[in-house]
Design brief:
alpha/beta; 422 residues; 8-stranded mixed β-sheet; 18 strands
């Protein structure tokens, strides 16, 4: 595979771009692997890459039922941040942000990571008091955090709605400057390319259609491209986790699958250099501007459970109203398209990276709104778990048993809204 460099870009400019090789192979699946990762999204690809890079394991396959970048990996709003507070989450997401900061160089692939700041608006003095606890903990544990007053915001983002009679009056913001955005499909391609270079087989159009097991372990995976045996199997399939879990005859998981819609407008001139978010009075909204000029935004999940990759109109209306409440200047901008991904919402808003009741099955799931920004650390710690057969200290409580222990890792606003029914 051709290495990307300034010299190669210039040289291929003079040769009709004929010097580039394909970015990863398209191998036929083998009958046996040491490790099979089900799910060719960001988490599965990152896990394969770190297994090969950190542990020198190469007899690995990543099974993707579609194509790389065609699932949830390309259906998000690309926001990266580490403004978490609770132990386990705090260290995990800070590790992820540090990996993001060098990811393009490490993968030799431009993932278009832009540290443009994450601006969390607050609307009352009480909201500032509540959020300050989180940001003080961030500063005490080695991350960056600032509080901006209303006047600071007016200077830096003058086109927000600062009217005193606004639906959500802006009093100021809590800011993480190292946060930002990246190009979602570029991240998938970068990890796929780097994993393939280290010997990982990336097998596309390969859907898991059956699982054979005995009392203690999975013995064989049936796919649309034949049967595969593996010493270790890892699930990293986001919203489809419950389907595979039941296919393995393991019952139910503390997870709900919901649609999460995202939206993009027609391209406009540079307007917003930062990521702006707010959550108040039942409203939830986030917006940034892409490198192509489109305003990319989203809000709440669709509050019914579904595996369909399409959303419903009430959320479209809700999110559009939130956009105009905070940025009225967007009122005449046309919505170009919108889409939906399937997210796996855990009952406390935090993820699972853990062993399972089966000896050779490992689980990566329950990412709620946090899956994209978690990708590097998710792959790092999941690879460590699979290779060493024990969880790292940072993720030891992110297991399926934590609900029985009463150890909820509950970052409110990041998870599902569990009821007694469902």
């Amino acid at each position: 595979m051709t290495r990307f460099s300034a010299w190669n870009v210039i040289k291929n400019g003079f040769t009709g771009q004929s010097g580039w090789s394909r970015q990863w192979r398209d191998p036929e699946p083998k009958s046996h692997y040491d490790i099979v990762i089900v799910g060719g999204g960001l988490h599965g690809l990152a896990t394969a890459y770190y297994l090969a890079k950190n542990f020198k394991l190469t007899n690995i396959a990543v099974l993707e039922k579609g194509w790389i970048g065609g699932g949830n990996a390309g259906r998000n709003t690309t926001i990266i941040r580490s403004n978490y507070m609770l132990k386990g989450n705090r260290e995990f997401y800070e590790k992820s942000l540090k990996l993001w900061e060098n990811l393009s160089h490490e993968l030799n692939y431009n993932v278009m990571f832009s540290q443009r700041s994450h601006i969390g608006l607050y609307h009352t003095a009480n909201a500032l008091d509540a959020a300050s606890r989180r940001y003080n903990i961030m500063r005490q544990t080695g991350s960056d955090a600032e509080i901006w007053s209303r006047s600071d915001l007016e200077k830096k983002i003058p086109h927000l709605n600062y009217a005193h009679d606004a639906r959500f009056p802006i009093h100021g913001a809590l800011v993480q400057k190292r946060a930002g955005t990246a190009r979602h499909d570029a991240v998938a391609w970068g990890y796929a390319r780097a994993a393939d270079k280290l010997g990982v087989d990336i097998i596309q159009q390969c859907e898991v259609i059956g699982i054979k097991r005995n009392a203690r372990k999975i013995t064989q995976i049936e796919t649309s491209r034949g049967s595969i045996q593996a010493d270790k199997i890892a699930f990293a399939v986001a919203g489809n986790t419950s389907r595979l879990w039941q296919m393995a005859e393991l019952g139910n998981l503390p997870i709900e699958s919901h649609n999460l819609q995202a939206f993009v407008t027609e391209p406009i001139k540079p307007l917003l250099d930062q990521v702006v978010v707010f959550g108040v009075a039942g409203a939830h909204f986030y917006i940034s501007q892409s490198d192509k000029g489109g305003m990319v935004f989203g809000g709440d999940i669709d509050w019914y459970k579904s595996y369909a990759q399409r959303g419903n109109l009430p959320i479209v209306q809700d999110v559009a109203e939130c956009a105009l409440s905070v940025m009225p200047c967007l009122g005449r901008v046309k919505l170009l398209r919108h889409w939906s991904g399937v997210v796996d919402m855990s009952m406390d808003g935090s993820f699972f990276i853990c062993k399972t009741p089966l000896d050779n099955l490992y689980l990566n799931a329950g990412w709620n709104y946090g899956g994209f920004k978690a990708s590097p650390a998710s792959g790092w710690y999941f690879a460590d778990l699979i290779a060493n057969d024990r969880p790292d200290e940072i993720i030891k409580n992110h297991d399926l048993d934590r609900f029985r222990r009463g150890h909820h890792i509950d970052e409110r606003g990041a998870g599902a809204d569990p009821k007694l029914h469902g």
